[in-house]
Amino acid sequence: MSRRSYERARRRYRRSSCGALAVAVRVSIFGAAAATALALFRRFRSLVHDFVGVAFIPELENDEDSESNRAGRLAELRVAKLFEGIPGVEVYQSLRIPDPEHRGRREIDIVLLTKRDLFVLEVKNWSGSINLNADGSWIHTRSDGSTVVHSNLLEDLNYRADLLESYIERRGTTLPAGFIQQKVFLVSRDCRPEQAITMQREVITNDQWEHFFNNNLVRKDSGWLKNALSNERSEKSLSEYERKQLHYILSTAPTWDRLELEGGTILVGEFQGFKGRPRDTQTLSFANRSAVSQMVMTHRQGWINNIFGSPNVLILVTTRDYRDGNVNLTSTKQRQESNMQTRVRSETEVVFQIVGTSRPQHFRLSEVLFLSLSP
Predict the structure, then answer these.
(1) What is the pairing mode between strands 203-204 and 90-99?
(2) What angle do CA 124, 130, 133 make, to 5 degrees?
């Protein structure tokens, strides 16, 4: 080959190499732009989902009954908070005790445990007048003039207290006679119960329970609590061992599930499962309340993870420990045995029905921080 032919071939090779390089660069730029656009779209879709799916959760059922339920929950929290911190008193909230006869669960607002008493409390934030009907039902006339007929609250509370005692016995502890006592707290200052209701020893009016706390809050001991609430029916007190066993039973009794979202929103209700791609739901098929007590979600960060591939969530799962309450998981090995990890796509959804709503809601794992499952 002549030198001139060689030079022409070399120039053609350079041009073809430069052209291929230019095409590769253009393809890379286009691919990066497309990936970035996809990531931005995913982020936009996530923001829209967060705004529509979470920001308006409190307004999904903004009717009078939902407002009443929320006000009642807040009243329960306020009453429970007042009892917390008193030496010798353990406070348990929103226990959901199995009711075999009706194939469901009955909720108990607050349970207080002392050495000599177990108080079962029903908290009502009703405003308006309350009258006792001839058949024993309670007639609640609201401030707006509307009337609601309720079953006899004391009879209903006694039934739930019996369920609680049976539940405790099934878990291996027998309570002394008269150990459980029932109280109905009417906490609203605008509540006007008639004398036939206030004369019943199980009923505590707003004036009465505010008087108890205003006069005894500084003392912070459990003696005044017994004097204020007890009907002196208990035959004996619990031993320290029996009290610890009872505390373990009550602290592990069924209650509402808890879902914590990014931004600090905490929702209380019932976990109903996961929804998403079959591979992810199959990975999470083990996550039921009989096997898992809580799940902590850690979200992958960084723009690279958002651009290349689908972001996923690392889930730290704490399995349920059914050992006796006196067994302490103190060693590192024991703590590791009770934990496990798994990964699923961030668009996988938690199906969760909030207390006071009539239908379940869906929350993507990308917005969930913590899920606690009741036994």
Answers:
(1) unpaired
(2) 120
CA neighbor of 230 nearest in space, from 165, 181, 184, 162? 181
Residue 170 Ramachandran class (φ > 0 left, ψ -120 to 50 alpha, else beta): alpha
The answer to whether the beta carbons of residues 105 and 355 sit under 8 Å apart is no
Tell me, what's the pLDDT at 361? Answer: 93
Prediction pTM value? 0.63
Please name the amino acid found at residue 372: S
182 CA to centre of own chain? 25
Tracing tokens 């502890």 back to the chain, one arrives at: 173
Q: Say if CB 181 and CB 229 are below 8 A apart.
A: yes
Checking if the pLDDT of 348 tops 90, the result is yes
Tokens at 229, concatenated: 């609430």
The CA distance from 112 to 98, in Å, is 19
Q: How far is CA 39 from the centre of its chain?
A: 32
Domain residue ranges in the chain:
1-53, 65-251, 256-372
- The three-class DSSP label of residue 204 is strand
Question: Running DSSP on this structure, what letter comes out for residue 238?
Answer: P
CA–CA gap between residue 190 and residue 346 (Å, rounded): 48
Under CATH, to which class is 65-251 assigned? alpha beta
Asked if 234 and 116 touch (Cβ cutoff 8 Å), the reply is yes
Pick from 9-18, 93-102, 265-274, 323-332: least confident = 323-332
Whether residue 225 contacts residue 112, with contact meaning beta carbons closer than 8 Å, is answered with: yes
Helix (H, G, I), strand (E, B) or coil at 201: coil
Q: What is the pLDDT of residues 128-158, one digit of tens each?
A: 999 999 999 999 998 888 999 999 999 999 9
- 3 vs 10, 11, 341, CA distance in Å? 10, 12, 68
Q: What is the mean pLDDT of residues 70-98?
A: 82
